[in-house]
Amino acid sequence: MSNHSELWKGQKWKKLRQNLFRLQRRVYKAVQAGDLRKARSLQKLILKSRAAQLLAVRQVTQLNKGKKTAGIDGKSSLNYRERMELAEELNHYGQDWKHSGLREIPIPKKNGKTRILKVPTIADRAWQCLAKFALEPAHEAMFSADSYGFRTGRCAQDVQKRLQLQLRSGCNGAKKRIIELDIKKCFDRIAHSSIMDRLLAPACLKQGIFRCLKAGINPEFPEQGTPQGGVVSPLLANVALNGIENIHTSLRYADDMVFILKPKDNAGKILQKVKDFLAERGMEISEEKTKLTKATDGFDFLGWRFRVRKDGKFSCIPSEENHRNIRQKIKAVVNNSNYGAKVKAKKLAPIVRGWRNYHSSCDMSSSRDSLWFMAYTANRKFRKEKKINRYQANELCKKAFPKVGYKQNQHVNVKGTKSPYDGDLVYWSRRNSRLYSDATSEALKRQNHSCGHCGLKFLEDESVHLHHIDGNHDNWKTKNLLAVHQSCHQQIHWSTPCMRGYLGAT
Q1: Does residue 268 surpass a pLDDT of 90?
Q2: pLDDT at 230
Q3: CA distance 437 to 440
Q4: Quick check: 131 and 20 in contact, CB under 8 A?
Q5: Rounded distance between C-alpha atoms, residue 43 and residue 25, angstroms
Q6: 469 FRET partner, CA 20 to 30 A, in 120, 179, 186, 360?
């Protein structure tokens, strides 16, 4: 085991990432130039690439949030020997991969119904990740600029900014209407043929994707559906839905979509075109949830409440449902009797910080959105503990509810159809650095938006971690903080001689 451990940890991950990115950039440029034959040839190279195989295994076993979720085989994690064996398996069978069955996990929905999450095995997830490495750059070159969901380099805040630009007073937003489109069981009803016909890939990769689709079919609809829970499923959904944005001025985030109508636009004709588009792909709109709304009446989208006020000014605040969800999360921690006040504060901080970061481009001036009452309730709970006085409770509340600055409509939108695969690393690293705040943002600026460990620019493929150089997580001095990739952070904490030398040098 120790040999495999050293072999895995000793991989030159920086070099591997550079090699993979070089191939992906070539695929992207080949598709842009219209040389599809060359693109397919390069995709085959990615499937055979040792760098891509190792990085795919690392992604699903080490970095992904669902890395501990078991598939139908019951394996929830892989040791170093199994990781190396899986990489070898991808090397031998990557171009003729056969999928195992899927583990079905029922997930309760808001309306009381359940959604079935179909989870592949770790090995299948690794192959899907490898396939995604090959497919994503090719399709990024073809995707619409108005599509934002599950796309590298793009986020929900881009949609928020685009809506602000469309509904501001200078664009006569008060007279516009919004079609809130809801696609009925989108992932369960996508026709396999609509994906396969539009997939840009060599034959061996297409065959693997087809097997992936067939592994998660519903017996009632054998020719439809892409399994939710698969690594490649969101990309396949984007492939099938690409082009719906061209019907009319619209913004799409995965299967959530809004159409923006001017006073003279015919909503009925637009909806009919949408229905025809979806019917070709085996889908249909939900008549109950699809609504036509005046911009002045307001509408909910992606956790925000958008509205054009009577004076013509654009307004964006967290939606009522989104606010209800954050209150429930905070209450679950505050009312948990298994935690002490200090543990509660530690668990609350990332929840509150994440919520406030997501809404940092909104108007957060109201007492509701400042979470004042939730902080007050937490303070009262903290003070009930015997060893916590009011001063300590106040300090814990400051830690539990960290302040995050907000500025309305501050987000800078992504430029047109730009993609991280275009090779403009400076633009993308600086853009992604804006998604972070406070100490992380300062560290990124200080390091010129490069990882403090490997030196590579930060892209959206990995989250940014703050490393405390002296190991003391209470020491937040500037000299003690280093912005690094998530994987680099793991490498730093591996107890290998080279890492100890690195820490000493730092």
Answers
A1: yes
A2: 86
A3: 6
A4: no
A5: 11
A6: 360
pLDDT at 416 over 90: no
- Alpha-carbon distances of 82 from 61, 319, 474, rounded to whole Å: 10, 45, 36
SS (H, E, C) 80-128: HHHHHHHHHHHHHHCCCCCCCCCEEEEEECCCCCEEEEEECCHHHHHHH
DSSP codes, 156-220:
HHHHHHHHHHHHSGGGTGGG-EEEEEEBTTHHHH-BHHHHHHH----HHHHHHHHHHHHHT-BTT
The total number of residues shown for the chain amounts to: 506
Q: How many CB atoms lie within 10 A of CB 337?
A: 5
For the chain, give percent helix, strand, coil, nearest 5.
50, 15, 35
Min mean pLDDT across 79-93, 144-158, 231-245, 466-480 is at 466-480
More confident residue, 474 or 169: 169
**Angstrom distance (rounded) from CA 506 to CA 501:** 9
Rg (CA), the chain: 24
Summarised one tens digit per residue, pLDDT across range 152-164 is 888 899 999 999 9
Q: What are phi and psi of 180, to 5 degrees?
A: -90, 105
Coil/strand/helix, residue 263: coil
Compute CA distances 103 → 27, 175, 215, whole Å.
33, 49, 11
Question: Token pair of 127, please?
Answer: 């192959």
pLDDT at 505: 33
Rounded Cα distance between 427 and 447, Å, is: 15
Secondary structure class of 257 (helix, strand, coil)? strand
* Residues with Cβ within 8 Å of residue 205, at least 6 apart in sequence: 43, 44, 47, 95, 131, 134, 135
Average pLDDT of every residue of the chain: 88
Q: Please state the pTM of the whole predicted model.
A: 0.89
At residue 344, the pLDDT reads 94
List the single range of 216-230, 380-394, 443-457 with lowest mean pLDDT.
216-230
Contact between 167 and 245 under an 8 Å Cβ cutoff? The reply is no
- As a whole number of angstroms, the distance between CA 18 and CA 153 comes to 18
Residue 481, SS3?
Answer: strand
- Closest alpha carbon to 401 in 335, 336, 350: 350
